[in-house]
Design brief:
This protein has 13 helices and five strands. It is of the alpha+beta class. It has a five-stranded mixed sheet, with helices on one face.
Length: 458
């Protein structure tokens, strides 16, 4: 029997079979289409979740930046209005962290990175809160300025940026995977629905347009973020410059106060000490002949007055060296180094070229030598110190070298107030400071200043 005759002999006719085949084909097409739709719909929901996660991360980074910017503005100006964006950012960071944490439930690897990000944000907020409290507690003090000069806050913020960028990148990878799944589902739907090729092509075209529009929006958003970042960088640079100017003004005020105090000590206390010595001399003359006990007490009183005068002279010289203004830079430095050698009994060599510098630069050089010698006497355990001031034509170089126990420059440079003070003074005088040291290898401090020099003899 032929196949056609067999089909004709069946209770169902060809139309019925064709209808059943068409129904099966339609059911298959619908099943394939539904499968593709469900996969695409699931991937879209996941993509939406991923995008929400990324938006939350971007919002967290923006809030951290707003908090830091508000803190910077308050620290520089002292105006409470700058704390409004800071307080608003701090108030929203907690809820944003909770929102992000909810997104990473069930993702152990990402949750671990987020935990590190959360700790870094907490440390940054704690650092901002501490510096603001220091500023509020002591508006005119140097404690908060020293805290601002450290790199701790910048380190915390760099950690926040790095961890946030890592999570955003991982989110972008997930988004790419989701988009890939959507593409695959669309392709399955195109193949499955052969009769709906035109509709599939139209859907694909619309998808491409949507993707292009999304790319344009992403580009515009990236450009906006880049513009805002550049603006914030300029703002930070301006605030840093303002802070440097303020620090220089405070340093100038400090030197003025030292000069005023030194003058008061020299004039007023000097007069009192001299008058006291004259009175003791008159009493000695009036009480002649002196008993041994009275003579001993008068001699002790004279010795105490002489010690007080010497102490007054030493304090006055530390506050404002008279040799610097009366004799010039080179003699003042030479006197300072020789006094150091006499007090500490450290083998000290000095080599000074005759130079002529502005008064502020001369004071910077003197204070640099003074602070360096003080650090050597306290910490270096050195047996030899070399001090030189060399004229190199368009520049001149101050160098202080010792053979002491040395130290780790990376650990001590920001931790030591003395070294930080030297660095700030040199930079304020438009100089360049280089500190070379290593444990057990001594220390060398080199400060190079621009400016013209003259070859006058000392």
């Amino acid at each position: 029997m032929k196949p056609n005759e067999f089909l004709d002999s069946l209770p169902l006719n060809r139309s019925t079979v064709n209808f059943l085949l068409a129904l099966i084909a339609a059911a298959a097409l619908i099943s394939v289409s539904e499968l593709g739709y469900r996969r695409a719909d699931g991937a879209s929901e996941l993509l939406s979740t991923v995008m929400d996660r990324r938006h939350a991360l971007n919002r967290l980074m923006q809030l951290a930046l707003d908090a830091e910017t508000g803190q910077r503005g308050y620290m520089i100006t002292g105006q409470s209005s700058y704390l409004e964006p800071y307080n608003a950012a701090v108030a929203n960071i907690g809820s944003t962290l909770d929102e992000i944490r909810a997104h990473y439930v069930g993702l152990p690897a990402d949750l671990q990175i987020f935990a590190e990000l959360s700790r870094s944000v907490s440390k940054k907020l704690a650092e901002l809160e501490v510096t603001i409290a220091m500023r509020q507690r002591s508006p005119s003090g140097v404690e908060w300025q020293t805290a601002m000069d450290t790199a701790v806050g910048r380190l915390y913020m760099d950690n926040v940026r790095t961890l946030g960028a890592t999570l955003i990148e991982r989110t972008n990878v997930e988004a790419s995977v989701m988009r890939g799944q959507i593409d695959q589902s669309l392709m399955i739907a195109r193949v499955g629905v052969g009769l709906g090729a035109l509709a599939a092509l139209l859907a694909f075209y619309m998808y491409l347009r949507q993707s292009a529009r999304f790319a344009v929006l992403e580009k515009e958003k990236a450009m906006a973020l880049a513009s805002e970042r550049d603006q914030l960088d300029r703002l930070v640079s301006q605030r840093t410059e303002d802070l440097t100017i303020l620090a220089n003004q405070l340093q100038t005020i400090q030197e003025s106060e030292r000069e005023h105090l030194a003058r008061e000590l020299h004039d007023e206390m000097g007069a009192l000490m001299t008058a006291a010595k004259l009175d003791v001399a008159r009493l000695r003359a009036m009480l002649q002949p002196l008993t041994p006990a009275v003579a001993e007490r008068i001699e002790h009183l004279v010795s105490s007055l002489n010690a007080g005068i010497a102490l007054k002279r030493r304090i006055t010289e530390d506050l404002r060296p008279s040799a610097l203004s009366d004799l010039g830079l080179a003699p003042a430095v030479e006197f300072l180094v020789k006094d150091f050698a006499q007090r500490t009994e450290i083998d000290t060599t000095i080599q000074l070229d005759p130079i002529d510098v502005p008064q502020d630069v001369g004071l910077t050089i003197y204070r640099t030598v003074q602070e360096s010698l003080t650090n050597i006497s306290r910490y270096a355990r050195a047996t030899k110190v070399d001090v030189s001031l060399t004229d190199r034509g368009s520049t001149f170089e101050l160098k202080i070298k010792d053979n002491g126990i040395g130290f780790d420059v990376d650990k001590r440079l920001n931790a030591s107030r003395g070294l930080a003070g030297i660095r700030h003074r040199v930079q304020a005088a438009r100089g360049r400071l280089v500190i070379s040291a290593a444990p057990g290898a001594g220390c060398s401090i080199s400060a190079t200043f621009p400016g013209s020099t003259t070859k006058d003899s000392l």
